[in-house]
Design brief:
With about 350 residues, the chain is an alpha/beta fold. It is about 30% helix and about 15% strand. The strands form three sheets. An eight-stranded mixed sheet has the order 3-4-7-8-9-10-11-12, with helices on one face. The protein has a four-stranded mixed sheet with strand order 1-2-6-5. A hairpin with an 8-residue loop joins strand 1 (about 25-30) and strand 2 (about 40). The chain is globular. The structure holds iron/sulfur cluster. The site of iron/sulfur cluster has 11 residues, from loops.
């Protein structure tokens, strides 16, 4: 999907060879601290992305400081967006990261317009704002300041433990605007996590981050997504996941089955053939042809498996197919087809919604 502000301009005749479609390119950087990665620093023309009305996304505004993601989740459905840059959706997505170095300044200008209505803004819907590049570029503090100073409520979804660096600032922001924090943790077997989400912090490191956010006063939601057929969907696996989620201090869970969007699907199926060839035919049955969503029957079966366990662990939660909408102003304005996915707030109850952010799959 091409959202406003993420569209690529006409080919730039002055760009580096192979990057003619990356408008605003300032320089491409490699550094020993990030071996194997290249950061393409660009000057963005816009920071706020308006989600088209026809989109399934139930929120109106997003900010994405990075394109591509070093967390390198094999199943990530944002992979296909890298092809707009004439980079591939596989290894290039993991290692060729576009960095909008001026995103905070541009955002502040946009939020200062008289027409800005302080609608909630989602961070982390396309790629992870706390991926490794954030350690070098520190774009999030400027974004958080711009949002807070203009009275704009915002939500963050991440797998990154770098969030902890900004917790004091986020707690301060939450004194004046609604701030929601959610984290995605879905693979609890360390060996599996290392091969399917090779650039992510371990599940335990993410739980430590949830604990830190909880201690800072946030009511954190964990996205138990994507649950992987035959790999992470056993009762024992889900039970263990919910036990650890509860112990981390998180208050809420959103769960859902794997999506395999174009761009991610071929990458994931190649990975599956290498790592779990015995499951290939089963996955082809669940995700035949161009189908990117697990069959309704599987999703219903999964929900019936998870819900009693949620109750047993005394966790609030629902699956992504739930039609429940909550009342976070601005985010509640979209159609009822989307699932409620985040409810984290410091100091007072609030709910924001989204469906299928790339981060989750
Ligand atoms: S699923 Fe999220 S964390 Fe993983 S690669 Fe995609 S954007 Fe990054």
């Amino acid at each position: 999907m091409r959202w406003q502000g993420q569209e690529l301009g006409v080919p730039d005749a002055g760009a580096l060879p192979g990057l003619e479609h990356l408008s605003g390119l300032v320089q491409s950087v490699t550094t020993p601290d990030f071996a194997g990665m290249t950061f393409h620093e660009v000057l963005a023309k816009t920071a706020l992305n308006h989600v088209p009305g026809a989109s399934a996304m139930p929120f109106d505004w997003t900010v994405n400081p990075y394109r591509g993601c070093s967390h390198a989740c094999v199943y990530c459905f944002a992979r296909g967006t890298h092809e707009y840059l004439e980079l591939d959706s596989g290894r290039d997505f993991d290692s060729q990261i576009v960095v909008k170095v001026n995103v905070a300044e541009v955002l502040r200008r946009e939020l200062a317009r008289g027409s800005w209505k302080q609608d909630p803004v989602m961070l982390g819907t396309n790629t992870d704002p706390y991926q490794r590049a954030e350690g070098r570029y520190r774009l999030m503090p400027g974004i958080v300041s711009a949002l807070t100073d203009t009275g704009t409520p915002f939500s963050i979804l991440t797998k990154g433990t770098l969030l902890r660096r900004d917790l004091p600032m986020l707690a301060e922001a939450a004194a004046s605007v609604r701030v929601s924090i959610a984290t995605s943790i879905a693979v609890f077997d360390d060996e599996l996590q290392k091969i399917i989400e090779p650039g992510t912090p371990s599940a335990q490191a993410r739980f430590d981050t949830v604990r830190a956010a909880t201690d800072a006063g946030f009511r954190v939601t964990v996205f138990l997504m994507p649950l992987l057929p035959h790999l992470t969907d056993s009762v024992a696996s889900i039970d263990d996941a919910l036990r650890r989620i509860k112990a981390s201090g998180a208050v809420r869970v959103v769960f859902g089955a794997l999506h395999l969007r174009p761009g991610a699907k071929q990458w994931f199926m190649r990975w599956l053939a290498d790592e779990h060839p015995e499951l290939v035919s089963s996955y082809l049955g669940l995700y035949p042809g161009v189908s990117s969503v697990a069959p309704k029957g599987y999703r219903t079966w999964l929900a019936k498996r998870v819900r009693p366990l949620l109750r047993a662990h005394r966790l609030d939660g629902h699956d992504e197919d739930d039609q429940t909408r909550s009342s976070m102003p601005g985010l509640a304005s979209r159609d009822q087809t989307a699932a409620t996915v985040i409810t984290t707030s410091r100091g007072r109850a609030s709910t924001s919604t989204a469906s299928a952010p790339a981060m989750l799959f």
